[in-house]
Design brief:
With 68 residues, the protein is an all-alpha fold. It has one domain. Helices cover 81% and strands 0% of the residues. It is built from 2 helices and no strands. The longest helix has 41 residues. This is Ribbon-helix-helix protein, copG family.
Amino acid sequence: MAMTLRTDEELENALDDLTAAKGLSRQEVVRRAVLEMRDRDGHRARVADASRQMLADWGETLDRLGSV
């Protein structure tokens, strides 16, 4: 699939720096950045869901422990 990515000077410089430092193509740098962001956001959502579930399951116990 083809895609056009519009860039500005800041992004051009960042891409140049990353391609030089990592020895990767611009396409691979962008690809990895997008996938990493998706994975990171997914992880945050899973942690938030788990925290809500734990609070629902253990909230009363934690409240009681906090009042001791």
